[in-house]
Each structure stands twice: as structure tokens, then as C-alpha cells.
Write a structure and sequence with these properties.
This protein has helices at 11-23, 36-46, 62-72, 87-96, 108-142, 156-168, 176-189, 199-203, 210-234, 239-248, 251-261, 273-285; strands at residues 3-7, 28-33, 50-54, 77-82, 98-103, 148-149, 152-153. The protein is α/β, with parallel strands linked by helices and 287 residues long.
């Protein structure tokens, strides 16, 4: 059962979240705090699986809280409560490590759906970790210096996961999917999630025409966003849309693309290849 840690300066919101979590058997609420500083002091004692934190708080905002709590605990998933739609604030929140947003005022159905998606992600994460550890252990046992196991690359679990996600986004057959896989593997292998070099610089390591490689990937990612938006328009609870729309793409741009496809706007949603690549790398990092 998942342990939840709730932080919001509005105690009414804390009570509502606790009732929703317990009523729907989503897990155990192991901490509720209106003061994020008090919450930080208790983190190491409670060791939650999922932290739900408000974005805007007077004492310590949600983004700063996540940065501080990440230094205390690993393997924690974050859900952020928010009333704002500022592009800069949302980007900072994703960079800090949030998994999903729950819009205020809190809606019971949305809370349940978001939490279930995060729990599903956590379970999938643990499964792939076990698979990868088995491959790694077998490789070290047979040949500590080997890069392959019976002719199969030890990177296979990583590559398989990336390819699986790209197929779910509808671009697995696109030639650029191999480029995306190459770049993401490079980022994960070399721990570049903190320094985040430019995509052009990364492409230059594998292509004599890095700009062309970058453009191929950008077109494919644009198609992926269009595909995922179509899924959401047909069924807002579509598994792929629910799992990746807010993780790999900026939700503000997803909304713009939805309005465009509905004929409500002449402006299409824009894709940030850099954000997509590093968000995908963050997903793969845990496997």
C-alpha cells in the first residue's frame, strides 16, 4: 500500500485529499502539513511513496520544497496541486521532478485518476528495475567486462523500454525513433540529466549533419504530440494520454493542439524537442 504525504497551506484541501485517498483505498496518509518546513523535518521519519504538494505557499513554494525534499529522499513520486497556468512555473515544476498536476479546486475524480496513473507508473518502474538488475547480474557473473550477454546488448532493457514508449506514441516505425533512442541512451548512460547539453551538441556525436538529425526527431515528436492529442480527444482517460501527455509534453501546448484540432483555434501546440528528450530520459533513468 502506498504512503502519501500531503502539504498545502489550506487545511481544508488537506482534509479533502485525505478523505478521497482513504475512501477510494488508494493508500495510507502518513503525513499532513500546512507548513512545508515542518513537512521537511518529518520526511525522513515517514518515508512516503507519493508526495502531493501545493505549488503556491507563503512559507516555501512547492518547487523549492521538492528540490529540498529530493536531497533527503530518493524514489519518491511527486504530484503538484496548482491553480496557475504560467508556462515558466509549469516548466520549473517539471524540472524539479513532479509527475503530474492536479488542478484546483480539487476534484475527486481527477485526484483518483491521477493517483492511479502515478501508482501504475511506480509499479512499472519497479518491474523494469528488477528486469534490468537480472540482466546486469547475469552479465557480471558470466563476464564482468563484457558488454553483451549471449550476444544481447546489456542496454537491451533500456532500448526496449524507449522503443515501447515510442510505439505507444505512434512513432515507433518512424526512422527518427532510432535517433531518439540513441540520444536518450547516451543521456542515461552518461548521467547528463543535470548538465543537459543541447540536442544539437548530442546529435553532433552521432551524425555529420546534426541539424538534420535534430529536425528528423523534432518532426517525429510533433507527430507524437498530434497522435496523443487525438487519443485524448477520443477518450480523455486513454491510458497513453493519461500516462504521457503531461510528462513528455507541456500541458499548455497539449491544450492548444486540442483546441486546434477541435477547430477552436488557428494556433497549433508547439513542441520542445529538448523537453521531450530529457523527460523521456527521466523516465528511462529509473530502469
Amino acid at each position: 500500500m502506498s504512503n502519501f504525504f500531503l502539504i498545502d497551506d489550506d487545511r481544508a484541501v488537506l482534509s479533502i485529499l485525505k478523505i478521497i485517498i482513504e475512501k477510494n483505498d488508494l493508500g495510507n496518509v502518513c503525513g499532513m502539513f500546512a507548513d512545508p518546513n515542518d513537512a521537511l523535518d518529518e520526511l525522513s521519519h515517514t518515508r512516503p511513496d507519493i508526495i502531493i504538494v501545493d505549488l503556491l505557499m507563503p512559507e516555501l513554494d512547492g518547487i523549492s520544497f521538492i528540490k529540498k525534499s529530493s536531497k533527503k529522499l530518493n524514489n519518491v513520486s511527486y504530484i503538484m496541486l496548482s491553480q496557475v497556468s504560467s508556462k515558466d512555473m509549469i516548466e520549473k515544476a517539471y524540472d524539479a521532478g513532479i509527475e503530474f498536476f492536479i488542478q484546483k479546486p480539487v476534484n475527486s475524480i481527477e485526484v483518483v485518476n491521477v493517483i492511479n496513473r502515478v501508482k501504475s507508473f511506480i509499479n512499472m518502474d519497479r518491474t523494469y528495475k528488477k528486469i534490468y538488475s537480472i540482466f546486469q547480474s547475469e552479465t557480471e557473473k558470466n563476464n564482468p567486462s563484457a558488454d553483451t550477454l549471449n550476444g544481447i546488448s546489456v542496454l537491451k532493457p533500456m532500448e526496449t523500454k524507449i522503443t515501447s514508449i515510442l510505439h505507444r506514441l505512434g512513432i515507433g516505425g518512424d526512422p527518427a525513433s532510432k535517433d531518439i533512442c540513441t540520444i536518450v541512451c547516451h543521456i542515461v548512460q552518461n548521467g547528463l540529466d543535470k548538465t543537459k547539453p543541447s540536442i544539437t551538441d548530442l546529435c553532433s556525436l552521432y551524425s555529420q549533419s546534426p541539424k538534420s538529425m535534430e529536425q528528423r526527431m523534432r518532426r517525429a515528436v510533433s507527430q507524437a504530440m498530434t497522435n496523443i492529442v487525438h487519443m485524448g480527444l477520443e477518450d480523455y482517460n486513454n491510458d497513453v494520454f493519461s500516462e504521457y501527455a503531461n510528462v513528455l509534453f507541456q500541458f499548455e501546448q497539449i491544450k492548444k493542439e486540442m483546441d486546434y484540432l477541435r477547430g477552436k483555434s488557428s494556433q497549433r501546440g508547439k513542441v520542445s524537442l529538448r523537453n521531450f528528450i530529457y523527460a523521456l530520459s527521466d523516465i528511462i533513468y529509473t530502469y
